[in-house]
Fold this sequence. Notes:
The structure is a single chain. The chain is mostly helical. It has one domain (3-133). The chain contains 4 helices and no strands. The protein has helices spanning 3-35, 49-72, 82-102, 107-133. The longest helix has 33 residues, at 3-35.
Amino acid sequence: MGRWTRRIRAVIGLGLLWALGGLAVGAAIELVDNVLPAAHGFTRQVDMWPQTLALLAFRRGVVFAVLVALLGGRRRFEQFTYGQFTAWGALAGLAFGAVALALGASLVPVVITTLLSAFGGAASLGLARAAEARGLLGTADRATALGDGGHAAIGEGR
Length: 158
C-alpha cells in the first residue's frame, strides 16, 4: 500500500473513532429524551441525535487527524503530551465552531463542541498509547512515528 493511501486510511480511521464517541454522546442524549421527554428542551431540537453527532464528530476527527499529521511531525506517541493533543482537539472543534458562529449559531454549541473535541484529542492519545503498548500498532520499528512509520494515528508502515 502506498504512503498516501496509508495516511488517508489513518485519517479516515481516526475520524471513525471520533464518530464512535459522537455516537455514544448522541445515544446518551437520545436516552434522556426518551426516558424524560419533557426534561430538557434542547433534546427536542434534533430528532436523531446519535447519527447527527456521529457525523459531526467524524468531521472534527478528520480535521484533528490532519492537524496531528501537520503539527506532530515524525514523533512517537510517547513523545507527545496530553496538553498538545488536547489543544489540537480543541482547535479542531473551534474550527467548526467558527463556521457555526458565521452561520448564526450561538456561543453555547461552539463552547460545547470545543470542549468535547479537546476531550477527544486527549482520548485519542490515550488510546494510541495503549494500543502501542499492547503491540496493536505493529512492532517497535514499524510504529516509529506519525509521519514516518507505524500504524499510528496518521502514520504508515514501512
